[in-house]
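Reopening this ticket.

The earlier resolution said the output was attached, but the attachment link was broken on my side. Pasting everything inline this time so it's all in one place.
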Amino acid sequence: MNHRSVVASRLATASAATTSWGDDRILHSRMTRRTFHAIMGGMLTLGATTIRGGTVEAGTTQTVVGVFVPGAERDLSLVEGFETMTGKTMGIVHWYQPWGYPGDTAFVLPNSRALEAVGARGGTPMITWEAFGPVGSPDPARLATIPTGVFDAHIDAWAWRLKAFGKPIYLRPFHEMNYQGYPWSIGMNGNTADDLIAAWRYIHDRFTRIGADNVQWVWCPNPENAVVPYRAIYPGDAYVDWFGLDIYNGGTQFDWGGWQAPQLLAERSYRSMQALNASKPVMLAEASSVEQGGDKGRWIMDLFDVLPQMLPNVRAILWFHDDWTNKWQGDARLGSLPRADWRVNTSGSALRAFQSIG
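Inline output:
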């Protein structure tokens, strides 16, 4: 989500989850190296196209449906509850993991239990890999430090574990890097566009050398703005498998331009991505709307029915299903948090609209 205070909220969530991740926290000297055979996972889709390992077959128009439900990486029954409520099976299950916790000398590895659980049910996981730190020292959000090699053991450990998973997985590093709401963003911590590109390529190259070919790289800026054009921060076609984009309709609840249809929120950014490479699939990695100011049910129908027709390279849409109305109340760091209920079931009409997609 495109707001500076989300940084603190992610850290609060991450700190609370430390004990739940167990073996997914390692010291610098520990590394897992295993290889499994690649096995395909299934996906729920809109349309009649087949996606193999996160790549879209030429000439097809499928849209994969996915969801972020907070805590799902620790308890997959939360996703199953969402599926029961909506009557839809999610093809992609999304969660967030940091590089490490503030003041902690341990690295955080991908949650292997969550990976296996999602894969076993035929879904595909997506991890938003957030460069929160410091992990000891230095801070990974200072992107120029990454190509120096100081984090090589951590990067390689992620690559080995994701390779060991052996099934397709989406990896979304440095998301919303063109908006100064995260410490890894352009203009924060001295980060430049060149720093971002160098860090992205460095990490990608290490994964490639290890052979983590099941990883699909999702380059996901915030909606394009006049300050940081996409072309300036694009790592290049060889380093990106999917374009990503996060869209939120703030309606009359937030001063974000009023009620806006999803296709309007996405169109400018989509066109800029098409100018970079018209053949790459596009993922709406986070999408949601408030109720205030319009018809949320209609907005959901537009998101899944109208938008993919207008912007045909959109091949995956992930709903952001979380209620931020009362989260972290009293925490001064979160004063500007966009407090809204982003869940799909905020009204009967919204839920019925989601139930009707497909």
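Reporter confirms the inline version is readable. The CA atoms of residues 323 and 341 lie 4 Å apart. The longest helix spans residues 193-210.
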